[in-house]
Amino acid sequence: MKIYVCRRKLAQWRGTLSLLFVIFIVYMTNFATLYIVPTPIGNLDDISARAIEVLKQVNWIAAEDTRHSSRLLQHFSISTRTLSLHDHNEDKRTAMLVQRLKDGESVALISDAGTPLISDPGFVFVRRCREEGIPVIALPGPCAAITALSASGLPTDRFIFEGFLPVKTQAKDNQLAELKARTCTSVFYEAPRRILATVKDIARVLGDRHIVVAKELSKTFETYVSGTPGDVIDYLEADAAHQKGEFVVMVSPAQVNLSEISAEAMSLLTTLCDHMPLKKAAAVVAEHYDLKKNALYQAGLDAKGAKDAD
Ligand code: SAM
């Protein structure tokens, strides 16, 4: 008898839980989508047809600076309502926009130029949407870092995007010092008022490391300058106009002196790589032969590349 009552209660509970689950799913499927929409970094023709369509279709456009974006929106006859979302109001706006998305109103996030969230606001908003189960779709599009890197002639197989360097000298020096042994390309954004000082700092901390500075991408005076930091300083100081505009600074990987690595060490490295990740193998061999970990890591990558090519 007791068993019978329990079973009936269980069946009732199961019914209630199923109903709650269905209500939850219906509620969730009513959520509208947040679109991350990249906009041009200079040349208006770089906006995609899909970006224009999404900006026309959504209920709201959240823009870093609504006045700045209004020129772009007018140019493409986009009349969607806008509201601001920037570093100083992102928490407040996030709460409001998340509620609108939950109520079924779609939102597109744009920044002043390029891909939102890449050295631009939006992280707090997107993270919250993810936490709340709101669909987030990012459209591919313009980004100064990727545009510059792809045409720089520097290695692109591995790179680190650093955003803007710190302004304070000590913090900036510390961050640049990390590049001394870094075996991949580093990419930075820099403001015009600091570009000369930053290249001088690179010269002071990293010496004659090969660098590339990309300026005014996709605009009339697009320029790539490459060479030692000294070469780039000469270019920047040659004409005041050379320091105006927008800049991406790229630093080449540290040169690895492979001749320091004996055949014996190299052989141990390749053997260990069959049993553990390259990073760990490089650390073990570095300790055993008193060599630089980064040099061994780079040698391991080169050996792997050569093996893969065979
Ligand atoms: N979200 C943007 C993106 O996807 O590239 C970046 C925004 S960040 C606030 C602005 C910085 O990006 C500029 O200071 C400059 O370093 C870089 N940048 C933007 N447009 C550029 C361009 N046309 N040429 C070179 N650098 C550019």
TrEMBL record:
One of its GO terms (cellular component) is cytoplasm. Pfam families: RsmI_C (PF23016), TP_methylase (PF00590). This is Ribosomal RNA small subunit methyltransferase I. Catalyzes the 2'-O-methylation of the ribose of cytidine 1402 (C1402) in 16S rRNA. The chain crosses the membrane at residues 17-37. Residues 33-230 form the Tetrapyrrole methylase domain. The lineage of its organism: Bacteria, Pseudomonadati, Pseudomonadota, Gammaproteobacteria, Alteromonadales. Keywords: Cytoplasm, Membrane, Methyltransferase, rRNA processing, S-adenosyl-L-methionine, Transferase, Transmembrane, Transmembrane helix. Residues 260-303 form the RsmI HTH domain. HAMAP family: 16SrRNA_methyltr_I. It comes from Alteromonas naphthalenivorans. The gene is rsmI. The keyword Membrane applies. GO terms for molecular function: rRNA (cytosine-2'-O-)-methyltransferase activity. Belongs to the methyltransferase superfamily. RsmI family.
